Request: fold
Amino acid sequence: GAADVGADDHRREPVLWWRAHRRPGIVSIRVDRTPNPSAMKYTMGVPVGGPATYTDATGAPSWAAEILVLDGVQSVFATADFVTVTAHADADWDAITQEVITALEGAFDRS
Reply:
């Protein structure tokens, strides 16, 4: 049952509280789990380009490069109005998500 949730399970919970931190001119970012337990989806509601997958900071847009250098991150996929970040199984998603949101807020706005 719900009381039997293991320690690893809480790391996979979506970090949706970031949605509440809306500021004028800053995109609102929704964070969701994906079918892949090693990936999280960041939906912004503004075009992000793509479809494109980045695995190396060299040649990637600056916002994707900022994400790719984070500890544990393996790839960044961008298309339509969302970005999916894939990381190693033992990655610290709370830390990654905080940095991903910072990078995305700095790169995309509501214009």
